[in-house]
């Protein structure tokens, strides 16, 4: 059941790049509205599971709540770094470097939480990342002009890995709704400050613009992140991060269906390789 939830969560967040491209507001503002429109759902869910509202408000005093706060901080940092990287380097560089997150998840899980890693899993991880690189396509180019954007893309991978590991730890203490409700509040506050400081467009000007932001919140955040957070309580973090490499595969399919973007032979082969790597990683994990 947890693996199925992870797959559904990966499918839901795969719609995010399409909706971000359709957004009328700035990149960090888009991330803020994504978090903010999701908060009422998470807090309603959280309060419905709590004996009293006071119990919910007293949660910050409980052991393990620091992991919830870190989850929100890392998610805000992840979205900010990735969106900014797209302004300072090529889209190809940003996507390839950001999709290296499973490497940092595996390294972090092994270094900090002593989670064992099998050779079969490492082989699957390598194959999946190679497939993700092929899927993104040609054009990867490291040069001095793009160094700042490339660095931001690498930081995106590190922040996303930290986000995954933080959720994993937070779920030892709190249910899904609590983790997403409080971490979403933290992330929204951070993103709001960054959006205003960056001076980007903050308000959508049409009904369609607001519908895009609401859809992003409901599909990617309420649907996708809820399923992923639930799954991380039952699955190893390294394996989960590799499985989330389904995102670029599905995003490519959605771009073909919705935006009429073509899929080349290299992308199709890359998608198959990603799926093969995920299958092999699962064989090497205790799932």
Write the layout of secondary structure elements.
Elements: H1 2-13, H2 16-22, H3 27-49, H4 53-57, H5 65-88, H6 91-98, H7 101-113, H8 119-136, H9 147-170, H10 176-198, H11 207-232, H12 237-243, H13 246-258, H14 265-283
Helix pairs in contact: 1-11, 1-13, 2-11, 3-10, 3-11, 5-9, 5-10, 6-9, 7-9, 7-12, 8-14, 10-11, 13-14
Major sheet size, sense and barrel closure: none
Work out the radius of gyration.
Answer: 18 Å
Put simply, the count of helices is: 14
Shape: globular
Low-confidence stretches: none
* Approximate helicity band: over 70%
The ordered H/E elements are: HHHHHHHHHHHHHH
Structural class per helix/strand content? mainly alpha
- Determine the mean pLDDT: 84
Beta-strand proportion: under 5%
Extended strand count: 0
Between the first and last Cα atoms, what is the distance in angstroms?
11 Å
**Total separate domains:** 1
């Amino acid at each position: 059941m947890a693996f199925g939830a992870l797959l559904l969560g990966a499918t839901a967040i795969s719609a995010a790049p399409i909706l971000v491209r359709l957004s009328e507001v700035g990149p960090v503002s888009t991330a803020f509205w994504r978090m903010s429109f999701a908060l009422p759902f998470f807090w309603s869910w959280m309060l419905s599971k709590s004996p009293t509202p006071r119990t919910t408000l007293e949660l910050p005093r409980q052991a393990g709540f620091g992991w919830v706060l870190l989850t929100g901080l890392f998610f805000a940092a992840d979205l900010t770094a990735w969106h900014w990287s797209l302004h300072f380097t090529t889209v190809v560089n940003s996507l390839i470097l950001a999709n290296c997150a499973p490497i940092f998840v595996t390294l972090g899980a092994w270094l900090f939480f002593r989670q064992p890693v099998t050779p079969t899993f490492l082989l699957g991880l390598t194959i999946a990342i190679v497939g993700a690189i092929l899927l993104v396509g040609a054009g990867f180019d490291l040069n001095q002009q793009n160094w700042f954007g490339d660095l931001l893309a690498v930081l995106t991978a590190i922040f996303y890995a930290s986000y995954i590991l933080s959720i994993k730890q937070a779920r030892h203490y709190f249910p899904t709704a609590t983790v997403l409700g409080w971490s979403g509040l933290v992330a929204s506050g951070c993103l709001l400050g960054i959006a205003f400081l960056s001076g980007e467009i903050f308000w959508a000007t049409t009904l369609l613009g607001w519908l895009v932001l609401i859809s992003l919140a409901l599909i990617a955040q309420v649907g996708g992140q809820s399923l992923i957070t639930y799954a991380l309580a039952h699955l190893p973090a390294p394996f989960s991060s590799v499985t989330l490499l389904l995102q670029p595969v599905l995003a490519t399919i959605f771009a073909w269906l919705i935006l009429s973007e073509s899929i080349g032979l290299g992308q199709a082969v890359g998608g198959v390789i990603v799926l093969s790597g995920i299958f092999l990683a699962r064989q090497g994990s205790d799932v």
